[in-house]
Amino acid sequence: MSILVVGSVAFDSVETPFGKADNALGGSATYFSTAASYFSEINLVAVVGEDFPEEHIDFLKDKGIDIKGLQRVSGKTFRWQGRYDYDLNEAHTISTHLNVFERFKPEIPENYKESPYVFLANIDPDIQWNVLEQVKKPKFVACDTMNFWIEGKPDALKRLLSRVDLFVLNEGEAREFAKEPNLVKAAKRLLSYGPKTIIIKRGEYGALMFNGNSIFSAPAYPLESIFDPTGAGDSFAGGLMGYLANTDDTGESNIRQAIIFGSVMASFNVEDFSLNRMKSLSLKEIHERYKKFKQLTHFEDI
What we know:
Elements: E1 2-6, E2 10-16, E3 19-26, H1 28-36, E4 41-48, H2 54-62, E5 65-72, E6 79-84, E7 91-97, E8 117-120, H3 125-134, E9 140-144, H4 147-152, H5 154-161, E10 166-170, H6 171-178, H7 183-191, E11 197-201, E12 207-211, E13 214-218, H8 232-247, H9 252-269, H10 276-280, H11 283-297
Parallel strand pairs: 1-4, 1-8, 2-6, 4-5, 8-9, 9-10, 10-11
Antiparallel strand pairs: 2-3, 6-7, 11-12, 12-13
């Protein structure tokens, strides 16, 4: 099953205590698409400027990502510069230049409109709504957001959630949007806005899923080397949605398995800057780490 993803393709300049990368390939849709491409067909809709190099186009094509929806327009590509200290859960933004992304109005190609799975990456909720107006009865819709939209367009975001099956956000965003410090209570409030399932990303502490009265907790994989957490959340979403689309099963038990595959992809992503680790990643490595996750969380009943 194919996935339509709409989001950003960008250049990132990132510095962490373990090194730095300048003008590296980034963006929410890029990380999502790359992670999801190991499981499913990906239809990418985004915008880049005239400065976007052909080598990045080739990378996306090599991953089997359909880029007919990638618009190249006059101007410069979206750029983000940030820094991480030893608390790798928190990014410190130094500068953001939206450039061509500021005028981004997604136009969904005709053959993308029947994609059964849709992921609305972190963009303006009004734009996310516009995407849903263009697609034709998708089977499963998921979306991400950030505190900028929670603070600036809370009503638009609530309206969007009435049409979303899965809402993915981090724990700070969940608390802020729900105006509730307790994550369990926050998730219940967010579920009341319409989504069937909420997944709260907790960085190095893993992820929590809330589905009706059911709660599932997944750990993060304990790594010895973490170079760059940029894109980890988008890689998590990509692995998760990629697995759901691959199996074409959105039942709760399968979402639990998908969360682990999402966690696997996020764990590989942080092992190097930008998408460098993904360039050499194999399906064998993915399945081996999935098995290690199972061992990590297994215990016997009494």
